[in-house]
Design goal:
34% of the residues lie in helices and 15% in strands. The protein is α/β, with parallel strands linked by helices and 274 residues long. Strands 3-8-7-4-5-6 form a six-stranded parallel sheet. The protein has a two-stranded antiparallel ribbon with strand order 1-2.
Length: 274
C-alpha cells in the first residue's frame, strides 16, 4: 500500500485492500474457477496465502521499499510465486531486487515506459522501475507492451531502453502483430516476471488509476497474452500496480484487477502441469 512514487494523482496506496475486497465477487466456494471456453477448472487444488501488507513507513521510500523486498524474499524462500498488489509502480523496484540470483525476463504491460533514470534527484519513483530493473544483473531483458502517448520518459529514455535490451510495442503495434507473433518476441528458456500496470488497459474499462491513457488494451487481449506466456514458459512473479480506487466509484477497475489476477494465477498453476 505504497504511493509515494506518484507524479500526478496519488491514491494507489488503497489499491491492495480494494482488490482484496473486489476478489470476494469470485469467492463462490466451488473449489476452483471453471472456465467453459477452455473446459478447465482453474485454481483446483491451488494453495494461496495472503501474507498481508508490507510495513510502509509513510514518507520514507527507502525503508518502505526495503520492507517490500523482505516480504517478497520470504515468499520466494517458501517456494511460492509472489503475487504483489500495488501501490504505485515503484514497488516493482524492490520486487525485482528480491529475485537477485534468479535470471528472469520482465514482461511489462503498461501505458508508460517507466524508464526514467534520474529526474530532479528522484531514482525510485513510479517513472523509474524499468530503468532500475534493467540495471540488475539477473534481469536478462524486458518486453514492454501497450506503451503509448506522451509520458514521463523522454526520447533519450526510449533510446537507452532499447540499448539496454527493452523490446517496446504499442497497443497498435501489438494488434497488427497479433498475440502469437508478440509472444514469439519474448525469449524462451528464461523465467518471466509479469508487471502489470492497470493503466495498460483502456480507461474505458479501468478508469481508477492515477495516470489514465486512452487507447489501451481490452480485457481479452491481455488474458490471451498471459495465457500464451504461461504456456511457453514459467511466470515466477507478478506485480499488479496503480489501482487507485477513489477515481472509480463504480468499482470496475478493482474488479478487473481481481479478475485478471485470478485468471493469471489459475493459468500459471494449470499450464505448469502440461
Amino acid at each position: 500500500p505504497f504511493d509515494f512514487g506518484t507524479q500526478f494523482r496519488a491514491g494507489a496506496r488503497f489499491g491492495p485492500r480494494s482488490i482484496r475486497e473486489a476478489s470476494t465477487l469470485f469467492s463462490f466456494g466451488h473449489g476452483g474457477a471453471y472456465d467453459h471456453e477452455d473446459d478447465v477448472t482453474y485454481l483446483e487444488g491451488v494453495r494461496i496465502l495472503d501474507i498481508g501488507d508490507a510495513d510502509i513507513v509513510h514518507t520514507d521510500t527507502e525503508t518502505s521499499h526495503a520492507n517490500i523486498e523482505t516480504g517478497v524474499r520470504a515468499i520466494l524462500a517458501a517456494g511460492a510465486v509472489p503475487v504483489v498488489l500495488g501501490g504505485d509502480h515503484s514497488i516493482n523496484i524492490p520486487c525485482i531486487r528480491a529475485f537477485e540470483g534468479r535470471p528472469l525476463h520482465i514482461v511489462q504491460i503498461d501505458a508508460h515506459l517507466d524508464f526514467v533514470d534520474v529526474r530532479h534527484g528522484v531514482r525510485h519513483g513510479h517513472g523509474n522501475p524499468m530503468r532500475r530493473a534493467a540495471e540488475q544483473d539477473h534481469v536478462k531483458g524486458i518486453t514492454a507492451l501497450g506503451i503509448r502517448n506522451v509520458s514521463s520518459t523522454a526520447k533519450d529514455g526510449y533510446d537507452a531502453a532499447r540499448k539496454m535490451g527493452d523490446d517496446i510495442l504499442s497497443v497498435r503495434q501489438m494488434r497488427k502483430l497479433g498475440v502469437g507473433a508478440t509472444l514469439a518476441r519474448i525469449p524462451k528458456g528464461v523465467d518471466s516476471s509479469l508487471t502489470l500496470d492497470i493503466d495498460g488497459f483502456d480507461p474505458s474499462i479501468a478508469p481508477g488509476t492515477g495516470t489514465p491513457s486512452h487507447g489501451g488494451f481490452l480485457y481479452y487481449e491481455v488474458l490471451e497474452l498471459i495465457d500464451g506466456l504461461t504456456k511457453q514458459g514459467r511466470i515466477i512473479g507478478i506485480d499488479l500496480v496503480e489501482v487507485a480506487p477513489d477515481y472509480d466509484h463504480s468499482g470496475i477497475t478493482t474488479i478487473l484487477a481481481a479478475q485478471i489476477l485470478l485468471n493469471t494465477i489459475g493459468r500459471i498453476a494449470h499450464n505448469a502441469k502440461r
